[in-house]
Structures are given as structure tokens and as C-alpha cells.
Amino acid sequence: MAAAFQRACSRVTLRFSSELCFSVPAVSFSQQRLLNTGRALLLRPRPVRVLIVTGGGYFGYEYYRRTGQRDGEPILASPSQVALYRSFPTRLLSRAWGRLNGVELPTWLRKPVYSLYIWTFGVNMQEAAVEDLHHYRNLSEFFCRRLKPAVRPLCASSCLISPADGKILHFGRVKNSEVEQVKGVTYSLENFLGPRKRQSNDSSSFRDLLLSSPENDLFHVVVYLAPGDYHCFHSPTDWKVELRRHFPGSLMSVNPGVARLVKELFCLNERVALTGLWQHGFFSLTAVGATNVGSIRVYFDQELQTNAPRYSKGSFHDRSYVALHEQVLNASGEGGVASVDGGGVALQKGAAVGEFNLGSTIVLLFEAPKDFSFNLQPGQRIRVGEGLGSL
To answer: Is the pTM of this model over 0.70?
Structure first.
């Protein structure tokens, strides 16, 4: 009886085991190990998915925030976004780029490299004084190539000509000591040019301090140089440079898209401001640096060195040209300086003043009679020698 009961239990056990084998999937050794250690209960990290979700959420928020802005109101980057951008080592990268530009290329490699650059940025080599690409030993020489004299005639009917090839970002009158870098986005005139001497009881605005006559007004124009443009800048009129002020700073991009987002971009970036006088009073030309444009050269000032590690952000360094004679004359061979006297460096209209290592921005700030008018359109292309305005 007992033996019969044991045989019946064995048949039931075998039947149950066979059904269980068909109903439950097999467990691998690695899965069994995870089950034993308890790690199967933990979620496996998915960094790519996390980045996609968080990035998508951020851009969704930005889109919602931007679409919620009122029409015509500028959309600016937040202070934290600007601080993050400024924390990038753009100065170090620009110095590295400058060294790379100075490396001499093998003769066989010059034409392929320069041809790729010409095709990418639409460079017109027919205007170059030397069209043979093998002539340029390195990228720096190619970027700063000279042009044929006849391709940039000077407009005789205009008292003010374009100092560079590029695009007109903005122009107009300066109001309330604020200047527009692009439409709706401004920067402080005092932050841009640096402080000026005031009398102890003088409460005038910074704009009024620059004007020599109440019959005049202050005007500005911004020219953006793209990487494919001619990289030298010229004197826009006959004037006398009295002071050079160098502002070490960041080297953020000055592309129009970035200029619309970063308030006071031109005040944050490294720049060289040349200030002095022309026939109507105050005049200044400021070369603004940008990413990969750490090198700003002024032909008649051999002491100027931009994007140098010894300079700290937030400072400025002056050099007065007043009462200088031999020092400037010895360095003026390439710059087209007309004459030097005790009042500063006199530049002729159209004379070559300096160059960028790549492309950047030129800002003109000048005093003129109130009836001065620009002959420009926002966003238009312009070249050296073309008229900016007239009286």
C-alpha cells in the first residue's frame, strides 16, 4: 500500500515538473547571478537617454519662453548662460589657433588647404594682389592678403568711408549714452570706450562729454567682418589718433546671431579703441576681437600685443600718441601714416591702419553736425572705400 502511494506521488511530481518546464522560461547563468546578488532590482543607467530627455526638456522650455515673449522684444541670454559661455577657454584656443596659423605649410599642401577655405567662405581671389596660392606660406599670410589697389576706390563725395569689408549690423545716433550693437540690444558707451576725465562738479552724461559743440550729435556704425572677408581695416576719414586704449577681455563670437543674444557683447570682448579728432570733433575706431581673432594688429603701434596671458580681464591699458615723434615714425612704414606731430598720429582717408587674424567687428563712434545722414541699409554688404554718409 505504501509502495503504491509513493509511485502515485512520483507520477504527480514528474507531471508538475514537466508542465513547469514548458511554462517558465529558462534562466541564464548571468541572470541567475544577478538574481542572487540583488542587482537585477536596480535600474541600469542610461546616460544617452538622460541627456536626450534633459536636453529636450531644456530646449522645450527655451522654446516656450521665447514664444511667450512679446513681438519686437529682444530675447537675451541669461547671466548664467553668458557666464558659462565666458568660462570656455576661448583665449587659450585663440592663441593656439594663432600659432597654428603661423606654421609654414609645405608647397604641395597650400593650394588644397586654401582652396577649401575659398570654397567654404566664398573668397574672391581675383581681387588679391597675389592670386597664386603657393605664394602664401601659412594661413596667417593668406588671411591678411593684400588687395589690388584698383579694386577698392575711395568715394570722393562722402566725408566718411567704410573702414572694412563686411556687413552693416547697425548704425544711427547715440541716445542716452547707449549704443545698439544690433537692433534692440544695447551696450553702455562708457563701458565700451572706458572712463574719461570729469570735472568735480560736472554732471553731464558720458555722451555729452564727448561732444565738442552743442550743435553736433554723436553717431555710430558697426561693420561685421566674416571669415571670408578681407581682414585689413583702413582709416575711414582724415583724422588724428591721440590715444590707444587696449581692453583685454573675452573672445566670444561676434556673429550677428550671438550679438542678438549677449547684451554688451562688445564690452565683454577684447578690443582696441583708437580715439582722437577729425574735422567735426570727437572720432574713434574700435577693433573688437572674437573667437580665433585674438590677434589685433595696429601697424603704427608695435607695442600693442593682444590676447597676451599677462593681461587680465576687466582692465585697460592706455598709450598716448601725443608728443610722440621718432617712436611712431619708425613703426609707421606699413600703416600709411601721413604725418606725425605733437598732436598725435595723423591718418589719411583710406590708409591701412591694421588687421585681424581672422574676421571680427569694427565700431565707429564719431561727432558730426546734426544734419549728418547715413546712406546705408541694415544688413547690407559694404566694402572698403564705399561711402557711409554725407552732410
So the answer is: yes
